[in-house]
Structure formats: structure tokens, C-alpha cells
Amino acid sequence: MPWGLKRFHESGQTHFVTFSCYRRRPSFAEPLANCTFESALERVRRSFGLRVYGYVVMPEHVHLLIGEPSRATLAEALKSLKQGVSRRLIGDDEYFWEKRYYDFNIRDYEQFVEKLRYIHRNPVKRGLCERAEDREWSSFRRYATGHEGRVEIESECAARKSERATGRLCPAAQLPHSSQQKA
N or C, where is the chain less crowded by C-beta within 10 Å? Predict the structure, then answer.
């Protein structure tokens, strides 16, 4: 690990994680590769008890907004994710991913919203699509429309669906919106 870089895992915080394809190759330029990544992310989500709040697959890198897994460490879950994808997509190349990943601990609601917006706006900023909802390999549609994608996203829509499925409804979440403040 480089000097001065510390990872704060097992802190109970949400993590903004970015990892890149080897030498920034556009390994996710094709739809099949993107679907492979999403399938692997969903497998890791289920296997490790990982909470996925947001993600986007870009041609040469991936952004995730995730909680710490309930079974194993974050590093082990990310290792499994990267290995699962590379085994399916590496082809004749020697490497698929860069060895390291960027990890930023989310400390408050404002940072959470900032990183989630960054993730969803990234394809638009890069010119891959005109609107965030046009990017198929992103969690944006889940937030905007409730559309279920290949990866289960921790959101209010997912919580309500789970509550309906189990026959119980939880009290409304206290969100920092002015509409929920009492006069």
C-alpha cells in the first residue's frame, strides 16, 4: 500500500469505490461485458451480504457506492467481484484490472448524495449519453423510476418491496427534507 494511504474498513460506513481496467482499456465498451459485470456484482451482493446503493459501469472503469458486507471484509468482496469478472472477460490479455482501487469513506448524508450524483452524472459528463436515464449500466433508473435492474439496489423502493413481500410495513424513514419537518 502506498505511503500515507489508509483504508478504513469495518467502520460501518458506506464506501465510494472506483477501480479501473488495466491501462484504462475500454473493456466495458460492449453490452455483453457490462451485463457480465452486473451479474457478478449481483452475485457478490448476495454472497457477501453487500449493500449496493449505486453504481455505474463506464467503458474503462467502474464506480460503486456500497456498504460493508455482512459476511467477510470489503476487500474480500471486491476481490471476488474483480476475479469473477476477469475470469469471464480476460480473453488473451494478461491482466483485466488495475491492481488497486480507490476507496473513499462516506461520513455523512451530504457526501452520500454528492457521490451518488457523481456516479449517475458521470456517463453524461463523458458524453456516453445525453441523460442519466439513458445509461443502461447504472443504478440511476432504479432511483428515478423504481425500475428493477440486474443488481438489487438499496433504496426506498427496494425497502417498500421487501416490506410488502413479508407483509409488514415499517414506519416512514426520517429524511432530512423540509416536507417532513413539523411546524
Answer: C
Total tally of structural domains belonging to the chain: 1
149: nearest Cα among 16, 32, 35, 27: 35
Could you report the per-residue pLDDT of 126-147, keeping only the tens digit for each? 999 999 999 999 999 888 888 7
Residue 3 placed within a domain: no
Distances (CA, A) of 122 to 2, 56, 57, 63, 119: 27, 8, 10, 9, 5
> For residue 74, what is the domain's CATH number?
3.30.70.1290
User: Which residues does the chain have with pLDDT short of 50?
Assistant: 1-3, 5-8, 159, 175, 177-183
14-20 and 52-57 beta bridge pairing: unpaired
Query: Which position has the grid cell 482499456?
Result: 25
Provide the domain limits for residue 103: 14-159
Q: What is the pLDDT of residue 179?
A: 40
Residue 180 located in a structural domain: no
